[in-house]
Amino acid sequence: MIVVLKNGQEEKQINNLKKWINGLGLEIHMSEGKESCIMGLVGDTSKVDIDLIRSLDIVESVKRIQEPFKNANRKFHPEDTIIEVGGHKIGGNNFQYFAGPCSIESEAQIIAVAEAVKASGANFLRGGAFKPRTSPYAFQGMRADGLKLLSKAKKETGMPIVSEIMSGSHIDLFEDVDIIQIGARNMQNFELLKQVGRLKKPILLKRGLANTIEEWLMSAEYIMSEGNMEIILCERGIRTYEPYTRNTLDLSAIPILKEKTHLPVIVDPSHASGLSRLVAPLSLASVGAGADGLMIEVHNDPAHALCDGAQSLKPEQFDAVVKSVSVMLPLVNKKVD
Ligand code: PEP
Ligand code: MN
């Protein structure tokens, strides 16, 4: 971290600042010129409150050189993290499909969709039981009963299951869920992040509606700082000024994340676009950009889905996406494990 001091500061004030910085366990390299005085802070600056330093009277500007995330940082963990769930690997040279309905609606629905997506090549079944809806009058999900049906589908098909948690008070209900999803709206629910950080199961962390990549990685850091290192990042589009799509898929986030972090990165083209006809092209683009997997909403009867029907694929459409993606996978040195 570089701190530039304003011109002509009293020695006493500079010494006070130095003492405080040293107290944080950091070394200081001073460079005193005629016009300005620059302090180079060396050490673990992740605990430094950059805004506090910036607000000091004697400080002109502050610049962070080192990223504020440590556990998630590829610099300190160069190899890709590979997460194994139910015998399937996520990350590295592995590619995975996470498919299923937006919401679990009935036993017949979730089992029919599970069997279909499994037959097409998906190793993971997704299904929402607690739904974060914009309107309190919209279908809120089947909640605990939905999770029971998801478990039933897991038993019938052998597929590991993924579902979104919205409150730490529901953790016990998620015992049979293999991967817990933190949705876009809760990406910065820091208490929830800390709670799932104490669990011994992988977390699928979606990007917030309008969050930067660094904020997203800091949310991963929250989970990791509690001991849970198994995180899958999921890009699901961000809010922009473009109304033709529900969100704007940030494809560049994929290669940026691959540089910055060792965690697996998957893409959800369903929420990113809100339109089923865009799921295939966005899936191919995501694979080309280096994604480790895709999360796709699939429904046996999208026209009558209780949630997100417009972006849901029919099983045969999902099958076609898997077929075209599988042509691309060898080109990016990936395989479905
Ligand atoms: C979902 O996956 O069902 C969901 C609600 O996604 P997001 O949090 O990305 O909106
Ligand atoms: Mn949905």
Description:
It is a single chain. The chain has 337 residues and is α/β, with parallel strands linked by helices. It contains 10 helices and 15 strands. The model has no long low-confidence stretch (mean pLDDT 96). Phosphoenolpyruvate binds next to loops.
What's the SSE blueprint?
Layout: E1 2-5, H1 11-23, E2 27-32, E3 37-42, H2 50-55, E4 59-63, E5 83-85, E6 88-90, E7 94-100, H3 107-120, E8 124-126, H4 143-157, E9 161-165, E10 179-182, H5 190-197, E11 203-206, H6 213-225, E12 231-235, H7 253-260, E13 265-267, H8 269-273, H9 276-289, E14 293-297, H10 315-328, E15 335-336
Helix pairs in contact: 3-4, 3-10, 5-6, 9-10
The protein binds phosphoenolpyruvate and manganese (II) ion.
Manganese (II) ion binds next to loops.
Average pLDDT taken over every residue: 96
Q: Can you give the helix content as a percent range? A: 25-40%
Tell me which oligomeric state these chains represent. Answer: single chain
- SSE order in H/E notation? EHEEHEEEEHEHEEHEHEHEHHEHE
Strand share of the residues?
15-25%
What integer value in Å does the Rg equal? 23 Å
Bound molecules: phosphoenolpyruvate, manganese (II) ion
Q: Report how far the terminal alpha carbons are from each other.
A: 42 Å
Number of helices: 10
Number of strands: 15
Low-confidence stretches: none
| Main sheet specs | 9 strands, parallel
Shape: elongated
Global structural class:
alpha/beta
In short:
33% of the residues lie in helices and 19% in strands. The chain is an alpha/beta fold.
